[in-house]
Amino acid sequence: MYKVAVLGDRDSIYGFAAIGLDTYPVENTAEASKRLKELADGRYAVIYITESLQSELESEIDHYTSSQIPAIIPIPGVSGNTGMGMRNVKKSVERAVGSDIIFNNE
Length: 106
Hints:
Layout: E1 3-8, H1 10-13, E2 22-25, H2 29-39, E3 44-50, H3 51-56, H4 58-62, E4 71-75, H5 84-97
Parallel strand pairs: 1-2, 1-3, 3-4
């Protein structure tokens, strides 16, 4: 059975442990990169990652975009929403249908 992981700074992800998700706090980009590779080994179907961390690891996360597992999903951190999640949805829709049919080029 697959699991769900949450990756990011401690303050942003600590609460996810209360609902039974595996949390992996990281303190820097190098540590986050190493942990992401470990989590993407097939045990986890979904990896939630803070938006700020996703922006730092964007090239590495792109490696997993074409894979079915894991789904890497950005979540806002304690610093707030950066809009990264909506940009990813827009990019996915454009890739799937060939144009922006949801956001109308906003």
